[in-house]
Amino acid sequence: MRFLGRLGVRRGKGRRVKIRQAIVKRVAPDLHRMAPDLNSGFVHQTVHRAIHGIGPLPGAARAATKQLEEQHGDVDAAINELIENHASFAAAQGFVSNVGGFVTAAATIPVNITGLALLQCRMVAGIAHLRGYDLSDGRVRNAILLCTLGEETVRGLVKEGKVPGTPMVVATAPAHDPELDKLVAAETTSALVGRVVGKRAAGTVLRRIPLAGGVWSGSADAYATWQIGKYAGRELRPRPAVKGTVVPRASHQPGQQPRP
Predict the structure, then answer these.
(1) Whole-angstrom Cα distance, residue 113 to residue 136?
(2) pLDDT digits over 110-128, tens only?
(3) Where do the structural domains in the chain lie, given as residue ranges?
(4) Is 229 in contact with 81 (CB distance < 8 Å)?
């Protein structure tokens, strides 16, 4: 408790968020020593590659469309499959590390962190695509990043007035705000730094127990990814169909072409 006091954390509502923010703030001076390539540029690059695909990993829209076809046009079922698949990917440490290698060659960023960030952005982007959002829109990309922060963190940012609203509000704002790009990227970077710190701290303890580290890390990543997917599914509500988006088969009569 004395440690929390030195970090400036008080008891009360939202204590977990404050603890996490305080720890990240405390280690911020060591950011460039731990992961100097974790910055807003890396964050935007991750979203871009999640949407367009990289290496053997297809882009978000392509993966989402495939799931929609497999689920016979049922959007909700396709979203559930996207979430389950990406949670499984996140649990497979070898898969996540391999994806991370495609994201960046920077050895200073743990590959499981980069791979996990890519998978979560890809999952949320796929959900957004199935719900009728334009993935090339900067507002939607900001909403995708906000979703990856998790519901609790987003609620705190909204309460503090740092963001204008929830991911749905950001995605449907009247105009794109370039300043919001910087803020969202900064918050996402802080979250990634927190993950680096958390994983290294946990690894120090679990490294002494054979196999425990990998099992714990994979389970934690899978659960976090599942939570983010469910949050995105609730938050990104259906939008009117526009050019380039998927229209559920049930929304048009047999023999007719989907609306553009």
Answers:
(1) 24
(2) 666 778 889 999 999 999 9
(3) 34-236
(4) no
